[in-house]
Amino acid sequence: MRSLLHLFGAGLLYALSLPPADAATGGESVAVTQVDVEFCLAATAADDVDKAATACAAVIDNEKTAKEDLIKALIARGALLARHDQVDRAIADDSRALELDPGLADIFNARGELWLKKGDKPRAVQDFGAALKIDPNHAKAKANHKAMARELERIGAQMAVAGKPSFNCARARRAVERAICGNRDLADLDREIFASSARVIRAARNADEAKALQREQEEFIARRNTGFGRPGYDLKKTMQERLQKLNGMGGY
Question: Pick from 26, 101, 198, 229: CA 20 to 30 A from residue 67's CA?
């Protein structure tokens, strides 16, 4: 009898010395309770910034959160932050979600739109392109990518002629022409004046009006050529005023 009591006591002490999970399951760990993502999703859907801040942080900052729930919480909070113009934080959440699942076309498109808000057009185009690689029929990404491709093409065209006037500088003979060729701002102004004048002439109601507008432009150039170098003559101001007048004629 004494030996049985001794064995029972030893067994009880051993059982009490085991970690709680092992003691409860006979050696198998107790399943970790999953963090509930629904509070985060509900708060973001209701556009409740204060509740979402707490509810989503509880999910996102918990290392026990399942990957699928973590992605859901990041996407939901990112969308909420984007709606409230917290662009950098929204980009951070979208980026983390994409690291966890690089196949999220919607999130690539959403992050592209956020890059666009920041003025980072190359990154925006890259994300729109990534969305289309995943889903070639993604309507929003397709429209965004097309618009940005056109915009980048326009910017490229502008960069190609930046600092170049409407005439060939290699043939510049007049002092005013050489001055324009030697100054990027003046060169850009000259090119814009030429383009605006051409646009106004094309929009003329009839041939006589077109001739009158052409003559006016030629007279401006003649006055510019003779006025340059005289005391008090401001070439840049004169060109800016001419451009402003032309743009006013064209309804711009």
Answer: 26
Query: Which value, in Å, is the radius of gyration of the alpha carbons in the chain?
Result: 35
Spatial contact of 201 and 214, defined as CB atoms under 8 Å apart: yes
Using CA atoms, how far residue 211 sits from 29, 198, 225, in Å, is 91, 12, 21
Token pair for residue 244? 């402003």
Segment 108-146, tens digit of pLDDT = 999 999 999 999 988 998 999 999 999 999 999 999 988
Surface-to-core class of residue 139, CB atoms within 10 Å of its CB (0-12 exposed, 13-18 middle, 19+ buried): exposed
Tell me how far apart the alpha carbons of residues 82 and 223 are, in angstroms, rounded to a whole number.
Answer: 54
Contact 197, 217 (CB under 8 A): yes
First CA to last CA across the chain, in angstroms?
A: 107
Which tokens in the block code for residue 108? 């690539």
106: how many CB neighbours lie within 10 A of its CB? 16
Residues 92 and 123 sit within 8 Å (Cβ to Cβ): no
Query: What torsion do the CA atoms of 37, 41, 44, 45 make, to the nearest 10 degrees?
Result: -170
CA atoms of 245 and 252, how far apart (whole Å): 10
pLDDT digits (tens, 9 = 90+) for 199-246: 999 999 999 999 999 999 999 999 999 999 999 999 999 999 999 999
What span, in angstroms and rounded, lies between the C-alpha atoms of 135 and 133?
6
